[in-house]
Structure formats: C-alpha cells, structure tokens
Write a structure and sequence with these properties.
535 residues; 14 strands; alpha/beta; disordered N terminus; two-stranded antiparallel sheet; 12% strand; 3 domains
C-alpha cells in the first residue's frame, strides 16, 4: 500500500507549532507542557495552526453538504422505473381489467419489462448525468428518442411473437403518451432541484491545487476551460516563497503552504487535492503525501504537463484533464448510503432491545454514587471534528475527567463499584446508541473515538503513532475491528496504540456491510473473552 510506503520517507517538520511526527493530520489540541502548567479550573483552549487571511476568507464561507452525483443518478434511475411501472399498471387496472373482468399478470409483467428496457435505453443514451439534468434540450430529445425506441421494440417483439392481438391498442397508446408526459414532468422537477443544488454548491467538487508555478497556472486554466464542470478551485498551496511561486494562478489565489492544507481541510469542505507538480518531482511529492494522506479526500496527480504518457485506462479524467489517482476518500457514494442505512436501521433495533438494560444500569449508577447518570466527553469524530460522546458515568462525579487527561488504570480509586462492572462489560458504552441513531456522529462499527487529550505517558496519541489521524477518515464507531481483536481498554505502552491504529486502518481499507455485520456479531463474544485490558 502506498500509505505504508509513505512511512519510509524521511521525517519532516509538521504543521503544528512545534516539530512533531510527520503524519499528524490535524493541529494539536494542546501543548502538553502548557496544559499541565494551567490551573485545573481554567478551561482548556485548543491551539490551532494560524491560516493566512486569504485562507480564512474561504473557510469562513458557509458551505452546504455535498450530494453524490452517483447517488443522484441512481435515484433517478429508480424513479424512472417506478414512475413508468405505476403509469402502466394504473392504466391496466383502470381500463383493461374492468373490460376483461379478471386480473391477469400478463399486463403487469409487460409493464415491468418495458420499464426495465426504458431505463437500460436511457443509460445507453447517456442521459443519467448530473450535467444533463441541469439542461433541457439534449436531455428531452434523448429521452423521447429512447422511449419511442422502447415502444417500437415492444411492438416488433409482440408482432413476431404473435401476441399483438392480446394487447389493447388503446392501453398501449395511452401508456406511451402518459408515460412520456410523466417522464417530462419528472425531468422538469429534477432540473429545478439540480439547479438549486448547484447554486448551493452541493454538486461542486471543492478542489485545492498544490503548486502555484506555471504548471499550476496551466492546470487551473485547463480546469476552468471545461464546460459544465463541477470543479470549484478554492485556491493553491505552495511551500516556495521565491519567484517560481505565483500569488495567483489563473485567478486562483495562493492560500498558504502545504503544511496548512490539513488545518484548512478541517475547517471547510475539501473534496479533491490535485497536485500540479510533475511526476519527476517524486521525492517532494512523497513528502507532501506523507502529510496529506490522512485526509478523507481524493488525492490525484495531474498529468496534463507530463511528457510520459500511459495507456488511457491508467488515467481518470476531470473533463479532459488526465490525472493519476493516489488516494481515494473511503466509504463514499452508495457505500456511504448503505452504511447510513445500516447504522440507522440496526442501531434503532439495538437501541430498542437495549432500553431495559440501560434502565437498570442507570438505576444502579444513580444508587451507587451521587451525580448525573450520563457522562459527556469530547472525542475525535470524522475528519477530526470534536463530538460529544455519551456514556454512563463510571467515576465519582467530583473526580470526573472529561478531557481524559489521566488514563484509567487497574483498581483506579476514581472508578465506582458499579463503574468497574459496566466498564469491564462495556455497558457504559450503551448510551452511544443515541449518538448513532439521533446525532449521527457515530457509527455502530468504526475506529473507536479517543478523547481529545488521550495520551501515551506524556505524549498525545498522534505524537506517538505515525498516521494516527488517518483513522479519522471515516466516522468513528461504538465497536471496531481493533476492539474485537483484543485491543481495547487501557493504553499504557506504544504497542497498544500502534496496534489499534493498524487494525483501524485495515478496517477502513477493507470496509463492507458484511464486515460491519461480522464485527457487530463478534463483539459480544469479544467482550466475554478479551476484556483483560478493560478497567
């Protein structure tokens, strides 16, 4: 894997205030020494990397969540099939069936066959593209031609199969014209929706360019020259301060250095990082990739200026601009939809099943020691966002540690009697089902979210492990691949945090719904057999 190969690149100064490990993907939450020096009653203040005024101007803009063109096209295909099936069957039930006096499956079967053939022909006509949804003339002419072809095909098949006399001609004509009217009405509504989404920026691929020299300028010009492009260039980043680095590249401003990209991508939505550097600058590219691969974005190398040409299949294209894929954002498009459905459906069922147990645990916590039943803690979420994770309180209220500055150890005096039991059995994690079902900031399965000040001895986790923040490229989970393999509980040596990260990265690279289901089913067994590190 290229991600592992990047570890062989010599270490470089990271983007935090002080030199740290090179694979940190977000600014440090605090400087350990300064945090220790603060009085206990002072709130923790996070230190972030300072961005340039131009970058701040971009990140301060309100950005809507992106919609996947692949998912939109999929829903349109389904809508076409459902709409045509509904029109055909409604005409049969309203006109043909009363005349025949009985229901027959022949007509519904023919309707479904025509609807499937229509979707296939629409796909062949290449009208399931978001760019075409914005327009009107090309979309309508292709759709009318394809729908007419499907009916001519159906008439031809019925003639040669000699069952044309069994089909009502009035029903067939009504199906053609009403089906066409329904499709046109649907496309007009879709056109309005897509245009509104485009104005909101939901269909844009927010892109940053690495390299503000002449190559970067050519790349930005090539991207802007595309018609109906979804690429929105936010700006360029470059480490160089000499004459080779331009302040603007074809109108795109320089926003900062490469070290600023991770913090920039944390504060605003970035979908694509595109390198304008030539492939010959491999050492420099690898050093930059070592810092950027932890981001949940697509990373590509532009090949528009390279003299070395590969086969066309080796490239992916942004319009007509050839690029080489380096990293892809994990769990996107339909995979993201499937995981969302899995979390909501299975999570809701799990929450309903767990409510009686949660009620008993809440009562036990309340009777065991004074204080609130639930405990809220700041933890790392997707792309290093800070999320509130809920747990049953397992410590004495006056000794609570919401920032996890001190790791819970065996026989820790801060842990209550009930707390020891629910931590050992992980019953304290059950309220996180509310995070999954209602807040949506946790998944059932994923890398476990660590506390924002989680430390190995005196070092923050991202200082102790290369690529630590890469585990935040997906939404964290209540349970995970690392946990069912025994890597849970106290982290008191480097191997434990290293193994957690390794197993989390394996999960991200090999995710599937079946993998999630396997981990979920294996979790109860793991809790009973591999709980020696849980205190």
């Amino acid at each position: 894997m290229l991600a592992r190969a990047l570890k062989a690149v010599p270490r470089a100064v990271e983007w935090t205030w002080t030199p740290v490990e090179p694979l940190n993907a977000r600014s440090m939450l605090d400087a350990a020494t300064s945090a220790a020096a603060k009085p206990a009653d002072q709130p923790f203040v996070e230190r972030r990397r300072r961005l340039s005024p131009a970058a701040l101007e971009v990140v301060n803009q309100k950005v809507a969540r992106a919609y996947s063109p692949i998912v939109i096209a999929g829903f349109v295909r389904f809508a076409d099939f459902a709409l045509l099936s509904l029109v055909g069957i409604a005409l049969y039930v309203g006109y043909v069936m009363p005349l025949a006096g009985a229901f027959s499956w022949v007509y519904p079967a023919q309707v479904i066959a025509v609807a499937v053939a229509a979707v296939v022909c629409f796909q062949a006509a290449d009208i399931y593209q978001v760019q075409l949804f914005r327009g009107q003339l090309r979309q309508m002419t292709r759709m009318i031609s394809s729908w007419s072809f499907v009916f001519l095909l159906f008439i031809g098949i019925s003639f040669f199969a000699k069952f044309g006399n069994d089909v009502s001609r009035l029903w067939l004509a009504a199906f053609y014209f009403l089906g066409l009217a329904a499709l046109i009405a649907e496309r007009l509504v879709l056109r309005s929706l897509v245009r509104r989404w485009a104005r909101q920026g939901r269909l844009d691929r927010r892109t940053i360019i690495v390299g503000s020299d002449s190559n970067g300028e050519q790349l930005v010009e090539a991207l802007k020259a595309q018609e109906d492009t979804d690429i929105h260039v936010l700006g360029v980043f470059d480490d160089r301060n000499d004459s080779r680095a331009l302040d603007t590249c074809a109108g795109a401003r320089k926003l900062g250095k490469v070290d600023d990209i991770v913090e920039f991508a944390r504060r605003t939505r970035v979908d694509l990082v595109l390198f304008a550097l030539p492939i010959s600058a491999e050492t420099r590219i690898l050093e930059m990739l070592k810092k950027l691969w932890v981001l949940p974005v697509d990373i590509r190398l532009s090949a528009h200026t390279n003299k070395l040409r590969f086969r066309p299949r080796s490239y992916s294209y942004l319009g007509e601009v050839p690029t080489l894929d380096v990293f892809e954002a994990p769990i996107t498009d339909w995979d993201l939809v499937m995981k969302w459905l899995f979390d909501r459906v299975v999570g809701s069922l799990a929450l309903l099943a767990a409510l009686p147990v949660m009620g008993l645990v809440a009562l036990a916590v309340k009777l065991d020691s004074p204080g609130p039943v639930l405990f809220r803690q700041k933890r790392f979420g997707f792309n290093n966002e800070r999320i509130d994770v809920y747990k049953f309180r397992s410590m004495y209220h006056h000794q609570a540690d919401p920032t996890a500055a001190k790791v819970v150890t065996k026989n820790d005096p801060r842990v209550t009697r009930v707390g020891r039991f629910i931590r050992k059995t992980s019953l304290d994690e059950l309220p996180q089902l509310f995070n999954v079902v209602f807040a949506g900031n946790l998944s059932l399965v994923g890398p476990r979210p660590h506390a924002v000040q989680g430390k190995l001895q005196s070092r923050l986790f991202d200082e102790a492990v290369d690529g630590y923040f890469a585990r935040h490229r997906v939404k964290p989970g209540i349970t995970g691949w690392a946990q069912i393999n025994g890597w849970r509980g106290e982290i008191d040596n480097e191997e434990k945090i290293q193994k957690r990260v390794e197993f989390d990265l394996y999960y991200i690279e090999n995710w599937s719904v079946l993998f999630d289901l396997y981990i979920l089913l294996k979790t109860p067994i793991s809790l009973l057999t591999k709980n020696e590190n849980a205190y």
